[in-house]
Amino acid sequence: MPRPRTRVAATAAALAALGLGLGIAAPASAHVSLDATTTEAGARTLLTLEVPHGCEGSATTEVAVRVPDAVSDLAVEDTQRWAATVTDEAVTFRTDRPLPDGTRDQVSFSVRLPDEVGAELVFPVVQRCEVGESAWTEVGEDAAARADLEMPAPVLVVTAVGGTTVQDAAMSYGAAGLVGAACLASGAVLLVRRRRA
After folding, report:
1. Which of the four CATH numbers 2.60.40.2230, 1.20.1050.80, 2.20.25.10, 2.30.110.10 does domain 7-192 have?
2. Closest CA relative to residue 46, chosen from 121, 112, 117, 126
């Protein structure tokens, strides 16, 4: 059953806290990556998804992220380029100014992590372009298996409070790229609360 959600208007302070995607030139061989300000169990974390390139030369028009059931208190942000929408299972960012191939950009959203230490949270991403799409949805059984995937889904591993650092988690799970994110926001924010399982 769909989880109950409510939308609340955001303040200027919330806008400043959540992040803004910035276009930066990037090599076309990179994978979609997910950064997190913290991976501690039960903590609220800011997730920044980076799109490194288009679809075989085609500009990006949409990025859809499937959000794991284990997270809660989802907050999604619009940016100058991307408009955010939310369904029961995904966060989707769309633009009427397609992001050129060879240019990286970021979109941000925040969630509350589950209390289970060691939980592996998979965030499958579908990147749609003016021509074609790229499905970053492949999942491996462990870090070694994920390293060999061509189109890996970003993975975040929940750590103990005061235990494994964000940097350590990133080294173990390269698809996650878990580092602190500091962003400047612009536009509207949708706060979407989801009942925890």
Report:
1. 2.60.40.2230
2. 112
